[in-house]
């Protein structure tokens, strides 16, 4: 699974960090960065992505098919 953050869309709310702190953290620019997407299950990852008000988190399966948004 691949997880990407659209840094132009990210506004630094931090919901993703609250849902999956082992996957996301906010950097010095207050933008989300991906740490380790494999540290949580798919449901947790999708909940974290869905919690983003800007849909800045992109989740793809191993074949590159976009699962969210």
CATH topology: Alpha-Beta Plaits
Instruction: Count helical runs.
Output: 2
Roughly what is the average pLDDT, rounded to an integer?
Answer: 97
Number of strands: 5
Radius of gyration: 11 Å
- Structural class by helix and strand composition: alpha+beta
Name the overall outline. globular
Low-confidence stretches: none
Helix content: 10-25%
Major sheet: size, sense and barrel closure? Answer: 3 strands, antiparallel
Q: H/E order of the elements?
A: EHEEHEE
Tell me what portion of residues adopts beta-strand conformation.
15-25%
**Mind telling me which CATH architecture this is?**
2-Layer Sandwich
Major sheet: arrangement of strands: 1-4-5
Q: How many discrete domains?
A: 1
Helices and strands, with pairings:
Elements lengths: L1 E4 L9 H5 L4 E3 L5 E3 L7 H9 L6 E4 L5 E3 L1
Antiparallel strand pairs: 1-4, 2-3, 4-5
């Amino acid at each position: 699974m691949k997880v990407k953050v659209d840094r132009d869309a990210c506004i630094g709310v931090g919901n993703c960090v609250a849902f999956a702190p082992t996957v996301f953290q906010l950097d010095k620019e207050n933008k989300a960065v991906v740490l380790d997407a494999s540290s949580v299950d798919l449901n947790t990852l999708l909940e974290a992505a869905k919690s983003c008000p800007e849909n800045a988190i992109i989740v793809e399966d191993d074949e590159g098919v976009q699962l969210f948004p």
